[in-house]
Structures are given as structure tokens and as C-alpha cells.
Amino acid sequence: MAEARHRTPVPGPAFTRLLARVTGAELPASGPALSGRLGQWFDWNRAVVLSRALDGRLPAPAGDGAPAADDDATAACARAREMQASAIVDEGAAALARVRERCASSGEAPDYAPFRQFHLARQRSMQAATGQLRGRLRDQLAHGPADLARLAEVDAVMELTLSPREQALLSGVPAMLGEHFERLRLAQASTGAGSVPAHTWLDAFSRDMQAVLLAELDVRFQPIQALLAALDPQTLRKT
């Protein structure tokens, strides 16, 4: 196999570090301040809505007292996350098996396309599931005291503003993994037929792809964990 390159550790979230390690991407050590980036991403009407929420100029909340994350909502979040994680592992293994079977029957080289389709399908599923959960938790917050109702409105504005940026960035991950697939394939070919078992590199690639998807799942669930914590500070210690 190709000799491993020594790389300077990349600072930042676990997802970013993992993606840099797997794909070999040269990520900048630092970037513009978050406040500066947000200033570029907000259009004026969303900025006005966010300002109103932060200043507390909201209608009176519909309910009295602090709501709690009900058992159904907490269980739904935990169940959805477990289902997504299980699907990443199970469907990833199935995609690997299909590629192996096709190669064995046709004698053709492995193709990245089935892995790409799997990755895109998991991303769409994660986006849909987390969007529904986030909306459900905001509805609970909106019926609480002013501070929690304000948080619900702020989160709604932030999702509308940041989700397109997030999706644009995450949509590039399958292409990056495709380059990783090709590097591993070429490295396997360069070792010679007898030195490494055929397609052993596919196992490594499948593990890498699943690890990246699981890290993305963590990123997508961070706002949900924050909303659960606002409803019930004990929630994060239960999950």
C-alpha cells in the first residue's frame, strides 16, 4: 500500500478532523471569526427577525411555567439517532457486499457509484429526521417562558440561515470520499496482485465512509441536543 503521509493535526470539530484525515484534504488552521461569517450569511430581513428575538420583543408565550422535554420527545430523539446510526452500519455493509458480488461475477474493477448512492441516501435521511425533531422541540420551547420562546425563535432563524450553508458543504463530502476511493484503489493496484489480498482496501474504504457518516450524524444532532438540554438540563446526561 502507499506509504502513509505524516500530517499536521487539524484543529476543529471531530467531523472536520476525521474528514481531513480520511481524504487528505489540506484544511486551513484557522478561518474568519464566526461573527464575521454570520454577518455575511444573514440577509436583512432575517437579521431583523433575529434582532427581535434576541432583544426579547416577542409575543407573550402561550403557556405558563417552564416546559420539560416530555418522555415521548426524548425517546423519539434517541430512537431516531439509533436508527440512523444502525442504518449507516447495516446499509454500508450491504453496499460493500453488493460491490464485492458484482466484481466477483463480472470480473470488473470496483465502482464507487454504489457507495456514492448509499452516502447520498443516508445524508437525505439524516436531514429529514433531524429537521422534524428540531421543529418538534421548538414547538415545545415556544409554549414556555419568554426566554425559552426566544430560544425557539432564534433557533428557527439560525436553521433557515445556516442550513443551506451546511447542506452545501456536506454535499461535497461524497466527492471527497470518491477521491479517497480512487487513491486507495490505485495504491492497491501499485502493490502488485500477490502482495495484498484482492479488494482488501474496500474494507478500509467502507469503514472510513461509515466513520465519516457517523461523525456527520453527530454534527446534525448537536442542535437537537442543545434544544433538549434547554427543555431539561438532565437530558444530556440521560443520552
Automatic annotation (TrEMBL):
Pfam families in UniProt: DUF3348
InterPro entries listed in its UniProt record: DUF3348
Record-given protein name: DUF3348 domain-containing protein
